[in-house]
Amino acid sequence: MILDKDKALKIADYLLQIKAVKLQPNDPFTWSSGWNSPIYCDNRKILSYPEIRTAVRLTFAEQIKNEFENVDVIAGVATGGIAIGALVAQELGLPFIYVRSSAKGHGLQNQVEGDFKAGDRVVVIEDLISTGGSSFKAVEALRNAEANVLGIAAIFTYGFQKSIDLFEENNCKLFTLSDYDHLIDQAAATNYVNDSQIESLKNWKLNPENWNK
Predict the structure, then answer these.
(1) To the nearest whole number, what is the mean pLDDT of the chain?
(2) What is the pLDDT, as a whole number, of residue 32?
(3) What CA–CA distance (Å, rounded) separates 157 from 1?
């Protein structure tokens, strides 16, 4: 869910400016899943640009305050959500923890790192939502550790119906600062792509698994 369309377009513009998102419908990328994709997203680049990093931090903090009451802890998803999650926690004056993709194989074998109490109200920060599977594993790990997960917030999502359904079916609120549709609108408005490329980009979202085969 996008909470503010103007902010979504602004965040999309930032991502395009710094090439955190690359659009190449004529020279597609291959994802690890084997899908051909006209888009590649690496939101870790945001950390290298202080002005944009600040805008993302402040937008997250504002939206979290508007959407959730009495948040106790911010949690980042390893690895992309750790740095930005810590910045958001600092902005909100809240404790920060992070969730590994799996439990450590040594020491205390923690999957959730940092201090929190059972019942603490947690908002999870992620950099990118694709199919939602890895992000929801972090939510499950927190719930298994008896945290009260209020929801998950991400910088960007492709907006696949599979991810939307996953969070809805598991009663986990999801919002993102920007998404694929706003990105394409911004790319068109700034002539980042031409009309034929826009059509190809929209077709990809309709059937990403079989696009351009």
Answers:
(1) 94
(2) 85
(3) 9
Over the stretch 55-104, which tens digit does the pLDDT of each residue have?
Answer: 999 999 999 999 999 999 999 999 999 999 999 999 999 999 999 988 76
Joined tokens for residue 116? 């929190």
Domain of residue 65, residue span:
5-206
Residue 146, by phi and psi: left (phi above 0), alpha (psi -120 to 50) or beta?
Answer: left
The total of structural domains in the chain comes to 1
User: Which contiguous run of DSSP H or E holds residue 152?
Assistant: strand 148-157
* SS3 (DSSP) at 57: helix
CB within 8 Å of 14: residues ≥ 6 apart: 20, 46, 49, 52, 55, 56
Question: Which CATH number do you get for residue 173?
Answer: 3.40.50.2020
Q: Is 103 contained in some domain?
A: yes
Q: Mapping DSSP to helix (H, G, I), strand (E, B) and coil, where does residue 17 land?
A: helix
* CB-based contact 149:171 (threshold 8 Å): no
CA 136, CA 183: separation in Å to the nearest integer?
24
